[in-house]
Amino acid sequence: NSMHKYQPRLHIVKADENNAFGSKNTAFCTHVFPETSFISVTSYQNHK
């Protein structure tokens, strides 16, 4: 199937100079907006 559905996500990460990104104590949240989902063609076929 060449059609795939995608759902963008917004990841918000709290970062500061003293806290390395990706450490266990990194605060983050993820937001999903259902109205931004879309379907894309991932494979094109030329029948010529």
Question: What is the general shape?
Answer: elongated
What average pLDDT do the residues reach?
A: 84
* Helix/strand order, N-terminal first: EEEE
Give me the Rg, rounded: 18 Å
The number of distinct β-strands equals 4
In terms of DSSP E residues, the strand content is 35-45%
State the distance separating the first and last CA atoms. 20 Å
Number of helices: 0
Structural class call reads: mainly beta
Subcellular location: Nucleus
Pfam families: T-box
Protein name: Transcription factor Tbx4
GO cellular component, one term: nucleus
Walkthrough of the structure:
The mean pLDDT is 84. The chain has a domain of 32 residues. It has no helices and four strands. It is mostly beta strands and 48 residues long. The strands form two sheets. It has a two-stranded antiparallel ribbon with strand order 1-4. A two-stranded antiparallel ribbon has the order 2-3. The radius of gyration is 18 Å and the shape is elongated.
Write the layout of secondary structure elements.
Elements: E1 3-6, E2 9-13, E3 28-32, E4 38-41
Antiparallel strand pairs: 1-4, 2-3
Subcellular location: Nucleus
Protein name: Transcription factor Tbx4
GO biological process, one term: angiogenesis
Features:
single chain, 48 residues, two-stranded antiparallel sheet, 4 strands, Transcription factor Tbx4, p53-like_TF_DNA-bd_sf, transcription regulation
Q: Summarize this, please?
A:
With 48 residues, this protein is mostly beta strands. It is built from no helices and four strands. It comes from Balaenoptera omurai (Omura's baleen whale).
